[in-house]
Amino acid sequence: MQIRNAYQLVELTRSKSSEKEAQLEAKLRESRAEIDELRIILVEREKRALLQATAAEENERLKREMNKARSKAEDEALVLAESSRAAEKVALLRLDSLAEEADKSCKKVARVTEQLDAAQASNAQLEAELRRLKVQCDQWRKSG
């Protein structure tokens, strides 16, 4: 009877042990599944963090390029403005020179016109004198 009780006790212990082992294996599978899920979540978060870091680096790079381009554009605008001011100054000097030349030309035209008028008046006087002399010469010939 004791042996039988001992066998029953051993069987009962085995049964409980098997049951406990099955429960522990189920819990182990659940834990492994949970660990796998957590690993997937961790990998996704690492990817997201890497993408954010990459995006932040890209943003910084783009900001630097934009600032460089803005600086270059400002420099070019300054050079263009200086060049425009220089060209305007040259044009104003040229305009002053041309205005002076035009003024001189107008004065010369007035002087030449005056001389022409004087020459024409003198020419008219000489022609009148020539006609008078011609008439006088004709009169002398007829009288002589």
Automatic annotation (TrEMBL):
Keyword Coiled coil set for record: yes
Similarity comment: Belongs to the ICR family.
Organism: Salvia splendens
Database matches in InterPro entries: ICR (IPR029688)
Keywords: Coiled coil
Protein name according to UniProt: Uncharacterized protein
Ranges in a coiled coil: 14-79, 109-143
